[in-house]
Design brief:
- With 257 residues, this protein is α+β, with helices and mostly antiparallel strands.
- It has 8 helices and 6 strands, in the order βααββαβααααββα.
- It starts with 22 loop residues before the first strand and ends in a 7-residue tail after the last helix.
- It has a domain of 129 residues: Alpha-Beta Plaits (2-Layer Sandwich).
């Protein structure tokens, strides 16, 4: 960069490098997505294509920024976890957040037509935040919180929209009906009034989506007539599983290393 008398203005920039030896989590949320989903007539309470589009965008982000070791998404949000040792963008929070947010948003527009026939009415927007978690327990508790949030919201929304769409209640009356209810009450409403076992609903709706890297095998032929060889390469795997219980982590002891 050429020197000039104006270069001193760089000194006004804040040093926002993330603390070393911490997991860096970048969480993206859709901005005003209630209005966005209404404008594009998303199916309530869950639009499968909209969720698949979110997952596709997250997968592309994982492939672009390979220091990411894990991502968890539900509804209009996604949390991306960088490995502790990452030095990407010198661990600058602003760089990490803006690069992931812009790549996710541009991917959402780029892949929209693969999931929806209708054109976008207006551009989607995603905001972001950076949070540091110093221990594996802190990180696991954060991800558990997000999955618990997925379950709580989906159970409520499933009941709410069944009461509106099938029982014919107004949104206001459906909200009053569910006010003060606990999970058991909502499960009973679904089963007794709509013959729905909540546990039989798609796992993507109930548990959200986990993305992580796993090794895969690929048969490769060296040259014409030669025998094939097996090469191992990493690929992004998509799961809809429980990450609150220890089973997920115990089966992947090296995931957070």
């Amino acid at each position: 960069m050429a020197k000039s008398k104006f270069e001193y203005t760089r000194k006004f920039e804040n040093n926002d490098s993330c603390l070393l030896n911490c997991f860096i989590v970048v969480r993206l949320d859709g901005r005003n997505f209630h209005r966005f989903s209404d404008s594009h007539e998303f199916e309530k309470p869950n639009d499968e294509n909209a969720l698949k589009l979110m997952n596709r965008c997250a997968e592309e982000v994982m492939k672009e920024f390979q220091d990411l070791i894990l991502a968890y998404g539900q509804s209009d949000e996604y949390s991306f976890v960088f490995k502790r040792s990452t030095t990407l963008f010198n661990r600058r929070a602003s760089k990490l957040m803006t690069n992931l947010a812009s790549y996710f948003a541009s991917s959402y527009v780029f892949y929209w037509s693969e999931y929806f026939k209708e054109k976008l009415q207006y551009p989607p927007t995603f905001d972001g935040r950076v949070v540091l978690y110093p221990t594996e327990t802190n990180l696991k508790d954060y991800l558990s919180w997000r999955q618990a949030d997925c379950h709580i919201n989906n159970l409520y929304n499933t009941c709410f929209w069944k009461l509106v769409k099938i029982a014919g209640l107004s949104p206001e009356d459906a909200e009053k009906r569910l006010c003060g209810t606990v999970s058991g009450d909502k499960n009973e409403i679904l089963f007794s009034e709509f013959n729905i076992n909540y546990n039989n609903l798609p796992e993507m709706f109930r548990k959200g989506t986990v993305l992580l890297w796993e090794k895969a095998e690929k048969m490769v032929s060296k040259s014409k007539g030669d025998s094939t060889t097996v090469r191992v390469y990493p690929q992004v795997v998509m799961l809809h599983v429980d990450i609150i219980k220890d089973d997920f982590w115990e089966s992947r002891p090296n995931l957070l290393i």
